[in-house]
Design brief:
1074 residues, alpha+beta, Immunoglobulin-like, Jelly Rolls, 6 domains, 7-stranded mixed beta sheet, 63 strands, 16% helix
Length: 1074
């Protein structure tokens, strides 16, 4: 079976204006000799190779990188240029080292990525290693000269040797245009013919931005589309295997069906073609994902916490030892600090009586010293006591305002915590503002209330910001797509004043735009209409357009079509963009309507937009209601209104000088205040336990994982000379985020300790999923999240990269400042596996120094040539003085042409070979190809079933897959392959280092080469090598920040190959014959 990108000239593809999936497109020419020059500056004949880019690559170039590989014994002789199909020529390399050196760089070979955004110039490179020029650098000219051109056509690389004595060769497999990433990985495909029906079944292991599939049949050497409409993707963005089945009639085909193929259509207008498959052929193997039993996992966690001395009280794990309890009693004998857990924004009141009922007697506490805090920040509060007494006691209360959770905190938790403490420096008294000289004649008598619609039903890493959940997709394939949004208006809503509607959607396609009517204007991607109560009012109330993956913000007001009670909004997506399809993500909707300023039996929350008019409130006797003003900044004040009559008050909400806020007015009866969900005494923070002075290595672990197993690892680190300390993640959360598990707590802690500690390594011990709040789960299926991750936006559509970089980015420049790794374990059995493998690796005389490596490569595609890339990575191991000689290769290209391997057994042969090599104890395993969270490679080359066959318990391997998703363990329902290789088995991997989400092939190759050079030539450990490589990648700027975030280290960062740093002599300037 071949995998290739194909331009299929059919109605469907012409209609859709499909372009092939993005790829690294290399030359297919043979190695080409470079004729020698003469003298010191006379060029020889031109050597050239070409790259053929298919016509379907019609998107304009916006950021082109170029891979250049030339073997030459004196690279200072070389001048290389690149010519585009449009005739534009850019100089890539122009005699490196000249004029700084008379004759240029005398080193051997070039293996370089040329990128306009790189931080260094290729002309200035000349290392003692081979290749003498490697890494990522700016070209002599500028590749941006090609911007705006289409890549389709013939690209020509021309190289001349401009001095005598030395010659070289162009390596075409290393001459490549980087046009980016493939969005779908196919696990299996199978067809059966039943009578006049063709039944096709296939499975994908991952789908990124995939709209759906087309099914193709080969009839008389022509490809014909078999499906009448697009076979819609089951999920836009899936990191779990998806299964498809399609039945089509073949009795009316005009000719004999001899083969079948399938193509996926991405939301960027790219098409991948998989095939051809013979009828009845079974390609690949279905991946059967392992489901996580969260109920059993939680039982193990509870047992571990109990064994560690913790008790679960009101849903919280607390460790109160006798010594700690006595100490806490002495320190807080009279007035202990109290934690209040709150679940929603609003005005809270905590009375003396409610505190007493919770077990805390604050009688006699000085009012002027009572402080409310949120994560250490003062919060305005009012303290009410009988007759204004100076001390708290019976019939007293504290009133304060709880704000909305900030967006980042809301990703991880549905509640927040506020502290009540005797802390004079944190006291912030809320003002009491009296209204004076107010008349109600011109007062505002209405306010805005709002309804929010939309549920967090699905997760997508395309969504921007801190909330990557959306309600539902809206899909329009050859017909209009609709989303109906019902809502109810309360009876008291003032219908004739209308409402404001805001719909939040995100565009779901970014195809090349087309001019469908010949007017010279490109059609927008998205055309949409909005209807309000369409059953009664058939005309649209709003119509708009949008492009690409940008937010679709719909905002309008209406006064004529509203009705009390039930209403509907209908969003209509119209695929008249010339593509005959469209898609969008519906995130949610907000409806704001007017209501009278009246108070009923319950409190009212009124919101006003920059209104400096007085506010009149009816039905509110001042003796029974209190008024408060808040705003979006957390400001809080009590208002004293003027009284118009017995049940009408007029209040001055704000002055003209305060119009930069959006005020809210709260009208509260005694029963309307909110109360904390729980009140408890927080666990004391042991500052000594957090102190990292004189520590080299900090291990931050969930307390359920702290014990004898982790002590084995710490003792080994200390024996190796690293002062190592284990710190409880709960202690950090208690100190910085009121006990709530947020990653910023760990980041703040590590930064604070960096001022007093020389530590260089960080290891996070504990896993997590992306579903922190348990959306769409129950008590049995809700996932456990021990140590959460940060998320950052990357290149293009990848906007939710789980990354460890912000934990150790102390200057917030986007680059890490310490080496960091993670063990994504959830229980002690997993921890024992990874600790044992790590100690086996560190052991004296282990296989780590064997200089043995296994290189695995998927089969070549029409453009992606994984074998060539794999060889370039393996060539980065060691150097000429200390080369790696024990190299095993499992390349699908070699197996596919091996006549000794039966045609139906190719993939199994590859699996057998890689299993044998790993079981024999290879120190390093590198894979190059496509990936998913549950498998490596098309055809499921490495799966859970293959991982189970690994028996290398004494000789675990360091794995570096150059493939998307291969360290993505965050899917909440499915066990990832990374976990199966690293934590769930005593064999397999001791480390996985690779991208978590989508990545570019060339970026992966460059990162791996620099990483391995640092480890095998410069003697760096894994963490330091990753740190150096990320900082060097960060220096290239631009889209390279995505690479810095994306590459993830699942390992002890102190792992190394135990090799010394081997310094090569500097390049010596060698004169040329004049």
């Amino acid at each position: 079976m071949n995998f290739f990108l194909r331009v299929v000239c059919t109605v469907s593809l012409t209609m859709l204006s499909i372009v092939p999936a993005e790829a690294m497109i290399c030359s297919t020419n043979p190695n080409t000799a470079i004729p020698d020059g003469s003298g010191s500056a006379s060029p020889g004949a031109v050597a050239s190779v070409t790259i053929e880019v298919p016509a379907a690559y019609s998107n304009a170039i916006t950021d082109l990188d170029f891979l250049l590989q030339i073997n030459h014994s004196y690279v200072g002789d070389i001048i290389a240029t690149l010519q585009s199909p449009a005739g534009t020529t850019v100089t890539l390399v122009n005699r490196p080292g000249v004029p700084a050196s008379t004759f240029g760089c005398s080193g051997n070979n070039i293996d370089v990525t040329l990128d306009d955004e790189a931080g260094s110039l290729v002309e200035n490179q000349c290392a003692g290693a081979v290749p003498t020029i490697s890494g990522t650098h700016r070209p002599a000219g500028t590749l941006s000269s090609f911007d705006g051109q289409t890549p389709a056509g013939t690209w020509t690389l021309r190289v001349t040797d401009n001095a005598g004595q030395d010659t070289g060769t162009i390596i075409p497999s290393g001459v490549c245009l980087d046009l980016t990433t493939v969005p779908v990985a196919l696990s299996s495909f199978e067809t059966k013919v039943r009578g006049q029906k063709l039944i096709s079944k296939w499975q994908t292991s991952s789908e990124a931005f995939n709209l759906g599939f087309d099914l193709w049949g080969e009839i008389d050497n022509e490809w014909v589309q078999l499906n009448s409409r697009l076979i819609a993707s089951q999920e836009f963005d899936s990191t779990e295997p998806q299964n498809y089945r399609k039945r089509v009639s073949i009795n009316e085909l005009d000719g004999e069906l001899t083969a079948v193929g399938i193509s996926s259509i991405s939301s960027s207008g790219q098409e991948e073609f998989f095939g051809p498959f013979e009828l009845g052929e079974r390609y690949g193997e279905e991946t059967v994902p392992r489901r996580i039993d969260w109920a059993a996992q939680r039982a193990r966690y509870d047992a571990a916490m109990s064994n560690a001395g913790y008790s679960k009280i009101n849903g919280r794990w607390l460790r109160i030892t006798k010594q700690r309890a006595a100490r806490a009693s002495r320190l807080n004998q009279r007035f202990p600090s109290l934690m209040m857990e709150v679940t929603k924004p609003g005005i809270y009141r905590v009375s003396y009586e409610s505190l007493f009922q919770a077990g805390f007697d604050l009688a006699g506490m000085p009012v002027k010293l009572m402080a409310i805090q949120h994560n250490g920040r003062p919060v305005p509060r009012l303290v009410n006591t009988p007759n204004g007494r100076a001390r708290f006691g019976p019939d007293s209360d504290v009133v304060f305002y709880v704000t909305e959770l900030d967006s980042e905190a809301a990703r991880y938790n549905d509640h927040s915590r506020y502290t009540l403490a005797l802390e004079p420096a944190k006291v912030l008294a809320a003002p009491v503002i009296a209204s004076s000289n107010i008349t109600g004649d011109d007062a505002t008598q209405t306010h805005l209330e709002s309804i929010r619609i939309g549920e967090p039903n699905s997760y997508s890493f395309i969504l921007p910001g801190d909330q990557p959940w959306f309600d539902s997709p809206v899909q329009a394939y050859r017909q209009i797509g609709t989303k109906v949004i019902p809502f109810e208006l309360p009876d008291y809503a003032i219908i004739d004043q209308g409402a404001v509607f805001e719909l939040d959607l995100l565009g779901g396609i970014d195809f090349p735009r087309r001019d469908t009517n010949g007017d010279g204007e490109l059609e927008p991607h998205h055309h949409f209409r909005v209807y309000l109560n369409r059953d009664e009012f058939p005309a649209p109330i709003y119509e708009g357009f949008g492009n690409g993956f940008d937010p679709i913000a719909v905002s309008f007001s209406n006064t004529e079509q509203l009705r009390a009670g039930h209403n509907t909004i209908e969003f209509e997506l119209i695929p008249d963009n010339g593509l005959n399809l469209d898609a969008a993500y519906f995130i949610g909707a907000t409806i704001r309507y007017h209501a009278p300023n009246t108070a009923g039996s319950t409190g009212q929350h009124y919101q006003f937009k920059h209104n400096d008019k007085p506010v009149k409130i009816s039905g509110v006797p001042s003796q029974q209601f209190a008024l408060f003003r808040t705003d979006e900044h957390g400001n809080f004040a009590k208002l004293k209104p003027g009284q118009d009559n017995a049940d009408t008050m007029t209040v001055e909400l704000m002055s003209s000088a305060e119009l930069q806020t959006t005020p809210s007015l709260w009208v509260m009866s005694s029963s309307d205040y909110l109360s904390p969900r729980t009140i408890f005494q927080p666990e004391p923070v042991d500052q000594d336990a957090l102190n990292l002075a004189d520590i080299d290595y900090v291990v931050i672990a969930d307390p359920s994982l702290i014990g004898d197993t982790l002590s084995r690892f710490v003792d080994a680190q200390i024996e190796m000379g690293r002062r190592t300390k284990v710190v409880s993640s709960h202690a950090i959360f208690n100190r910085y985020t009121s006990g709530l598990p947020e990653p910023k707590a760990i980041a703040q802690y590590l930064k604070a300790q960096s001022y007093i500690s020389p530590y260089q390594y960080v290891l996070l011990v504990g896993g997590h999923t992306y579903n922190y709040r348990g959306y769409n789960t129950n008590a049995q299926t809700q996932p456990m999240n021990l140590i959460p991750s940060f998320y950052r936006a990357g290149e293009g559509m990848v906007r939710q990269i789980p990354t460890a970089v912000p934990f150790v980015d102390f200057d917030a420049d986007g680059a890490p400042d310490r080496a960091i790794g993670r063990w994504p374990v959830r229980d002690l059995a997993q921890l024992n596996n990874v600790v044992t493998k790590t100690l086996n690796w560190h052991a004296e005389g282990s296989h780590k120094s064997s200089q043995s490596a296994l290189s695995i490569a998927s089969a070549k595609e029409q453009f992606n040539q994984f074998t060539g890339s794999s060889d370039r990575v393996i060539n980065a191991l060691g150097n000429t003085i200390n080369p790696w000689a024990k190299i095993s290769r499992v390349y699908m290209d070699d197996i596919n042409i091996d006549d000794n391997v039966p045609a139906g057994n190719k993939i199994n042969e590859a699996r057998n070979r890689l299993v044998d090599a790993i079981n024999q104890g290879t120190a390093l395993t590198v894979f190059n190809g496509h990936g998913s969270p549950t498998s490596w490679g098309n055809q499921s080359l490495m799966t859970s079933n293959v991982a189970q066959r690994l028996t290398n318990t004494e000789t675990p391997t360091m794995m570096i897959p150059l493939a998307c998703y291969t360290t993505y363990y965050e899917t909440p329902s499915v066990q990832s392959l990374a976990e199966l290789l690293l934590t769930d088995s005593p064999a397999g991997a001791v480390a996985l280092v690779s991208p978590a989400l989508l990545s570019r092939p060339l970026d992966n190759e460059n990162f791996a080469k620099r990483l391995l050079q640092e480890m095998t030539s410069n003697g760096e450990d894994l963490g330091s090598a990753v740190l150096i490589t990320k900082r060097a990648t960060h220096a290239n700027g631009g889209r390279h920040q995505s690479v810095v975030y994306n590459w993830t280290t699942l390992a002890d960062p102190t792992l190394s190959f135990g090799l010394p740093k081997v310094s090569l002599p500097p390049v010596v300037d060698q004169p040329k014959t004049q």
